Amino acid sequence: MSASGGTKAIIAALLANAGIALAKFVGYLVTGSSSMLAESVHSVADTSNQGLLLLGGKRAQRVATSDHPFGYGRDRYFYSFVVALLLFSLGSVFALYEGIHKLESHEPLTSPLVAVLILVVAIGLESYSFRTAIRESRPLKGKLSWWGFIRQSKSPELPVVLLEDFGALIGLVLALLGVGLAVLTGNPVFDALGTIAIGVLLGVIAVILIVEMKSLLIGEGAAQPVLRRIVGAIEEGDPVQRVIHIRTQYLGPEELLVAAKIALAPCTTIEDVARTIDEAEQRVRSAVPEARLIYLEPDLDRSAVPG
After folding, report:
1. Distance between CA atoms of residues 199 and 88, nearest Å
2. Number of domains in the chain
3. Same-domain check for residues 133 and 28
4. Is the domain of 253 the same as that of 119?
5. Domain with 246 in it: what CATH number?
6. pTM strictly above 0.70
7. At which of 218, 240, 257 does a domain end?
8. Are residues 91 and 118 in the same domain?
9. Which of 182, 197, 218 is the last residue of a domain?
């Protein structure tokens, strides 16, 4: 997994969310706060999601078979897509339902200070998880913006954990705001409104993740900077003149398929074609390590002559 960094961020998020979920649920039982219940379900969903990400990483390491000759790298995309669906169904939909129900019932809070204390502690734990995800993402992010990293990353785990943790932190602030306003005004409607806001937030994040993971699952090609490095590596040596056309697709986060048709210098002998292709493939692998499967086809009709 991209590798130890992604795993470290997932484990940090899993441990933090498991502890937070338990504390929030106890807080809900004590206070009756719908915001606390929505946040409890949110943290349970996040904990399950981290487990699924670890499972996807493990299953992606299986050896290729005759039925799956390119291996199982896309398992990581599949499980990340499932995570996005769970975040939407368990997190967003439940929070919206609970918030609307609370809005209609006007049930008062009991022991709201307990809820406030738990939420403050949860913010601290979630901040630790978020900081870990940020630290592990920086080497992969490079010069991209954070939004650009989420949109362009071919490794799904870190963007998922980043968005989950970001959503969890904002959700905790919304829950704290809802409980605080309910205490200050004596009106439980604010707690219900905080719950609905959490549901909307989780829904937006889930939709972003669903769109991004679906794109990866279907199959994305290399980004333009990577594509330029591949073309440059192919055209770097003689007798390659130019790349006529090229197609790429990620078979997994660390496995890129490259297929290209290349024009060779006039009068290149058949004996030189194989050597030229081997050398070009080596240059591509050196420039782009994730390019594992490379197929280069010479335009023999215009490039080569019999040896």
Report:
1. 9
2. 2
3. yes
4. no
5. 3.30.70.1350
6. yes
7. 218
8. yes
9. 218
% of the chain at pLDDT higher than 70: 95
| CA–CA dist 91, 96 (Å, integer) | 9
Dump the DSSP string for 175-196.
HHHHHHHHHHHS-THHHHHHHH
- Which CATH number goes with the domain that contains 48? 1.20.1510.10
Q: Give the chain as a 3 state SS string.
A: CCCHHHHHHHHHHHHHHHHHHHHHHHHHHHHCCHHHHHHHHHHHHHHHHHHHHHHHHHHCCCCCCCCCCCCCCCHHHHHHHHHHHHHHHHHHHHHHHHHHHHHHHCCCCCCHHHHHHHHHHHHHHHHHHHHHHHHHHHHHHCCCCHHHHHHHCCCCHHHHHHHHHHHHHHHHHHHHHHHHHHHHHCCCHHHHHHHHHHHHHHHHHHHHHHHHHHHHHHCCCCCHHHHHHHHHHHHCCCCEEEEEEEEEEEEECCEEEEEEEEEECCCEEHHHHHHHHHHHHHHHHHHCCCEEEEEEEECHHHHEECC
Closest CA to 36 of 170, 176, 165: 176
Q: Is the pLDDT of residue 306 over 50?
A: no
pLDDT tens for residues 120-134? 888 888 888 888 889
| CA-wise closest residue to 165 among 246, 46, 33 | 46
Q: How high is the pLDDT of residue 101?
A: 82
Domain residue limits at 245 = 224-305
pLDDT of residue 154: 87
